[in-house]
C-alpha cells in the first residue's frame, strides 16, 4: 500500500467537520446544514447544499452503488480509518426538492466539529446551521 497523504484546511483558527473515529478533517461546517434540530441518531443527517470540496474521503466505485429512498447513492468513507461517514447522491429521483445529484449527506453520529480548541459532537445543535422546513 502507498503512502497516505492527508489534506488540511488553511485556517488561522481551526473550524471544520472531522471524522468521529480518527479526527481527520473532512469538510467546512458552513457548507452543511440540517433541516430539523430534532433529528437524532442514524437518520439525523447533515446535507451539503453547495458544490464545495470535501477532503480526505473515498467514494465507492460505480459497482458498489445502492438505492436509498429511490435515489442512487455511493457510500463515503474516511480515507484514514475507513469509517463510513455518509453517502453521495449519484442519481436523485427528484421526489425531494432539496436533494440533487452530487449532493453529500454526512451522518451526524459519525462526525465531530473542531471549533478552535473545542470539539463538538456532530449531533449537537452547534455542529451545523439549521434550516427548518414546514
UniProtKB/TrEMBL annotation:
Molecular function via GO: metal ion binding
* UniProt domain Yippee: residue ranges: 15-115
> Is this entry keyworded Membrane?
no
Sorted keywords for this record are:
Metal-binding, Zinc
Q: Where are the transmembrane segments?
A: none
- Keyword hit for Metal-binding: yes
Entry superkingdom:
Eukaryota
- Xref: InterPro entries: Yippee (IPR034751), Yippee/Mis18/Cereblon (IPR004910), Yippee_fam (IPR039058)
**Can you tell me which family this protein belongs to?**
Belongs to the yippee family.
Entry-linked PANTHER family: PROTEIN YIPPEE-LIKE CG15309-RELATED
Q: What is this protein called?
A: Protein yippee-like
Q: Which gene encodes it?
A: LOC105170390
Amino acid at each position: 500500500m502507498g503512502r497516505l497523504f492527508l489534506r488540511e484546511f488553511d485556517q488561522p483558527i481551526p473550524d471544520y467537520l472531522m471524522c468521529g473515529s480518527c479526527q481527520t478533517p473532512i469538510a467546512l461546517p458552513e457548507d452543511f446544514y440540517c433541516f430539523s434540530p430534532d433529528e437524532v441518531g442514524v437518520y439525523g443527517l447533515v446535507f451539503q447544499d453547495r458544490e464545495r470540496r470535501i477532503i480526505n474521503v473515498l467514494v465507492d466505485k460505480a459497482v458498489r452503488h445502492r438505492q436509498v429512498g429511490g435515489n442512487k447513492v455511493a457510500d463515503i468513507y474516511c480515507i484514514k480509518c475507513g469509517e463510513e461517514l455518509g453517502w453521495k447522491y449519484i442519481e436523485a429521483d427528484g421526489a425531494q426538492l432539496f436533494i440533487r445529484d452530487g449532493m453529500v449527506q454526512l451522518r451526524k453520529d459519525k462526525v465531530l466539529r473542531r471549533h478552535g480548541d473545542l470539539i463538538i459532537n456532530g449531533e449537537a445543535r452547534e455542529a451545523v446551521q439549521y434550516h427548518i422546513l414546514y
